[in-house]
Amino acid sequence: MCAVVLGLWGGLLHMSISMGMVEQMTRSTIETRVSHIHIFEKGFYADKETAKTIPAGNRILGDIRQMPEVLSAVGRVKITAMASSAHAARGVVVNGIVPEEEPGVTKIHEMITQGVYFGAEKRNTAVIGEKLAEELEVELGDKIVLTAQALDADIAAGAFRIAGLYKTPSSVFDGATVFVRRDDIAKILGLGDGIHEIAIIVEDPGTVSELAGRLRGRYVDLDVMAWGDLAPELEYTNAAMSQMLYIYMMVILLALAFGIVNTMLMSVLERVRELGVLIAVGMNHRRIFAMVVIETILLSVSGGVAGMALGAASIALLGRVGINLAVVSRALASFGVSEILYPRMPLVQYPRLAILVVGVALLSAIYPAIRAVRVDPVTAIRTYT
Amino acid sequence: MSLIETRKLTKVYDEHKVAVKALNGVSLSIEAGEFTAVVGPSGSGKTTLMNLIGGLDRPTSGSVIVDGKDITSMGQSALIQFRLNHIGFVFQAFNLIPVLTARENVEFIMLLQGRSRREREARALELLDDVGLADLVKRKPTELSGGQQQRVAVARALASYPSFVLADEPTANLDSASADGLLDIMEELNRKRNMTFIFSTHDARVVKRARRVVTLRDGEVFGDKNVLVDA
Questions:
Q1: B83 vs A282: CB contact, 8 Å cut-off?
Q2: Which CATH superfamily groups domain B4-230?
Q3: Given an 8 Å threshold on Cβ–Cβ distance, is B56 in contact with A377?
Q4: Which pTM was predicted?
């Protein structure tokens, strides 16, 4: 029974850590880089041409904000640019945002580590990642120059003072993304009120695919992309993790099965004389078989319940306090995972696991039960007397 | 018609490719109500004979007729059912179920037969009273002496309303007093209920009380003495 308890406990904990990691990656990506759904002018996502603004973008944005499934939507200017300081230069993606609206779609405002998230102050301020600041060797208050292609295809540049630094779980994102006021960057590029991107957050993440489909139908001349299209590696990771976890649990259950078979076989072999007596006095094979199967199920279910209870309790506790993995924070940051990991296990997994445990118990009981039924009463009573 | 009849019963064991003839053409008749001891030196075939009469083993040739039925031609399942309803067993090592109380051990056989709870409880208490253990019904085997455990085994053997009881060396693990007490009970049950007892034994005390003594030697009947008639 200990083997069942420990096996399930360990397996659940491992699964929950993996699921928590993937969930954090997904949430972090959606809260920073991609929202649930994005809308672009056709072909913009591939080449990021400044001229490819969404026709009637602000009207479309207003229509989308009226949809009941939509929690929040913003319009952004989005360009690739060179960010340079006195010491270095880096290629970046510049997001021209409306700071008052952006918190409805991303959580960058909660990730400020130094300075402010724009605030009510001057023009041409920027919020950059700590990683980028480190690479450009700049600090709060320093200026960086953003150089990009303007609407008229000419090169345009503007100096921005660093108002705030942020840090997300993804170091890659932090080193490549700059936030500025939309009006400021639009003026430099000659965009007027044009927007390149509409980013949408929905009420229920389960409706993303369906809503994206409807928007594609409505805006046939635009590119409507769900988060899985924008971050395919994340969608793949989610799918692969689900498959991997099932395989992992199968392996654990297989190991459990061997443990159960071993235990029950020992139990049968230790009771050969008793079984011989039972058969001798008239207990038929069907009853002997059922007896061993029921014993196996009781053993496995008891261990299963205890293992799942321990697993659930430890997941609940660690899900609240987190697991500190600061020692590998750099590696985790490259995957977009923070150094504090919060294990997660959907409640629906527990009844699924319970069913699997019973199934494994039933299968594991077969061989020991067959051995019990095959006991020869004459030999058993004589040999073990 | 005899209660038990063996007809040219032969059993050959193929022990490591050297055949051992444990029984050689044994023909016996046992009537209802007998108190019979089967005796003989080790290797004479006593246990083999008991196993064949009890349906625990199959003969190489010959047959065993019990209550008019040829048990040697029965299938495995039918044989188990027949044992449950017709034969009571008392073993040398008691072989009670250790996790059950004395009463539960006796009831167990009736549970297998599908008897009602009320009937099981009543009969178990009655039998345990018959064997002098009315005050110890709630004790587990580990809380009983050897003699007491064997009495529970006797009560268990009788619980299923068997046609006869096979007792294989029932006194072997008992001290003199316990053995005498057990034999007193078995004699009384034989007299009171006309229960047939067949013993396989080396114990002179058992032989002394038996009304018929069948002696086996080298797998054959060497002697068959009806004590009352032949005395």
A1: yes
A2: P-loop containing nucleotide triphosphate hydrolases (3.40.50.300)
A3: yes
A4: 0.73
